[in-house]
């Protein structure tokens, strides 16, 4: 019984750590990617035209947003499936 | 005539435009949505990852303000000739992005707070929350587009101070 509790606690810790790393990754990407893409494309891609570079930065920021929404929805579906599988295995063991 | 068109106080308006594009609305949006997320976290912690979307969207509003500030500051040249008209254009561009950022951040904050609280009880609120938040954020994008449009007019003023 205590082994199961300890195993559940470590898996919970691992899951929360993974979620935290994911959040930190998205926060860092949202802070760094748009402004760095602005300067990079202004210099190398659009040859000095700053308006196109601003549009590129906005597209990069919106891509980060869409990626976050997609990943959160996919992760939610995965965790829902895991919960259902646990319920099924629990009922099978009881039988 | 060039001395009238390019007075020495012209860069003040340009830099005021840079400062006014800065993120006030995003802070309000993050704070208000964060209150709702903290309330949700006490009941259903597994929903936190999905409920952080309003905070990410408020961050995007901040990115819009930052990009406009960098854009305007890149076109400023106070040491070379800087016409007063260019200063006013930059001020208008900064104000348009800043005001729409405040409005969009306010909307994202209120919508995020109440939709996240409703998400605790009803799972299907999530899709409607995303749609409403996207419409609120596009308001900030419109302000940025207007700022970009204004900024393109400055290049036609080059050489007015010679």
From TrEMBL, chain A:
TM region(s), chain numbering: 20-40, 52-71
The Gene Ontology biological process annotation of the record reads: vacuolar proton-transporting V-type ATPase complex assembly
User: Superkingdom of the source?
Assistant: Eukaryota
| GO (cellular component) term, any one | cytoplasmic vesicle
InterPro entries with a match to the protein in the record: Vma21
Which keywords label this protein? Answer: Cytoplasmic vesicle, Endoplasmic reticulum, Membrane, Transmembrane, Transmembrane helix
Name of the molecule in the record:
Vacuolar ATPase assembly integral membrane protein VMA21
Q: Name one Pfam family in it.
A: VMA21
UniProtKB/TrEMBL annotation, chain B:
Instruction: Give the main location.
Output: membrane
Question: Where is the protein localized?
Answer: Vacuole membrane
Alphabetical keyword list: Hydrogen ion transport, Ion transport, Membrane, Transmembrane, Transmembrane helix, Transport, Vacuole
Q: Which Pfam family, an example, fits this chain?
A: ATP-synt_C
List residues traversing the bilayer. 12-31, 52-76, 88-113, 125-150
Tell me if Thylakoid is a UniProt keyword of this record.
no
Query: Which GO cellular component does the record give, naming just one?
Result: vacuolar membrane
Q: Which residues form the V-ATPase proteolipid subunit C-like domain?
A: 17-72, 91-150
In terms of superkingdom, the source organism counts as Eukaryota
Q: Name one GO molecular function term.
A: proton-transporting ATPase activity, rotational mechanism
Question: Which CDD domains does the record match to this protein?
Answer: ATP-synt_Vo_c_ATP6C_rpt1 (cd18175), ATP-synt_Vo_c_ATP6C_rpt2 (cd18176)
Q: Which SUPFAM superfamilies match?
A: F1F0 ATP synthase subunit C
Bilayer disposition of the protein:
Multi-pass membrane protein
Q: How does it assemble?
A: V-ATPase is a heteromultimeric enzyme composed of a peripheral catalytic V1 complex (components A to H) attached to an integral membrane V0 proton pore complex (components: a, c, c', c'', d, e, f and VOA1). The decameric c-ring forms the proton-conducting pore, and is composed of eight proteolipid subunits c, one subunit c' and one subunit c''.
What family does the entry list? Belongs to the V-ATPase proteolipid subunit family.
Q: What PANTHER family would the database entry show?
A: V-TYPE PROTON ATPASE PROTEOLIPID SUBUNIT
> Per its database record, what is this protein's job?
Proton-conducting pore forming of the V0 complex of vacuolar(H+)-ATPase (V-ATPase), a multisubunit enzyme composed of a peripheral complex (V1) that hydrolyzes ATP and a membrane integral complex (V0) that translocates protons. V-ATPase is responsible for acidifying and maintaining the pH of intracellular compartments.
Name of the protein in question: V-type proton ATPase proteolipid subunit
């Amino acid at each position: 019984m205590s082994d199961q509790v300890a195993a559940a606690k470590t898996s919970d810790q691992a899951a929360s750590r993974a979620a935290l790393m994911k959040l930190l990754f998205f926060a860092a990407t949202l802070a760094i990617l748009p402004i760095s893409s602005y300067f990079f494309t202004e210099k190398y891609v659009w040859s000095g035209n700053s308006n196109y570079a601003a549009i590129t930065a906005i597209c990069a920021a919106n891509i980060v947003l869409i990626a976050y929404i997609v990943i959160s929805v996919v992760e939610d579906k995965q965790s829902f499936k895991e919960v259902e599988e646990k319920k099924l295995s629990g009922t099978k063991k009881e039988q | 005539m060039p001395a009238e068109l390019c007075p020495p106080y012209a860069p003040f308006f340009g830099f005021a435009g840079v400062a006014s594009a800065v993120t006030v609305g995003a802070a309000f949006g993050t704070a208000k949505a964060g209150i709702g997320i903290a309330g949700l976290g006490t009941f259903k912690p597994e929903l936190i990852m999905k409920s952080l979307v309003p905070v990410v969207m408020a961050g995007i509003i901040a990115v819009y303000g930052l990009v406009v500030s960098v854009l305007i500051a890149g076109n400023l040249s106070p040491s070379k000739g800087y016409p007063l008209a260019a200063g006013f254009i930059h001020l208008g561009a900064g104000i348009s992005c800043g005001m729409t950022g405040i409005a969009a951040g306010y909307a994202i904050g209120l919508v995020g707070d109440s939709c996240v609280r409703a998400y605790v009880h009803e799972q299907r609120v999530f899709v409607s929350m995303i749609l409403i938040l996207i419409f609120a954020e596009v308001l900030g994008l419109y302000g940025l587009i207007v700022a970009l449009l204004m900024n393109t007019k400055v290049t036609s003023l080059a050489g007015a101070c010679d």
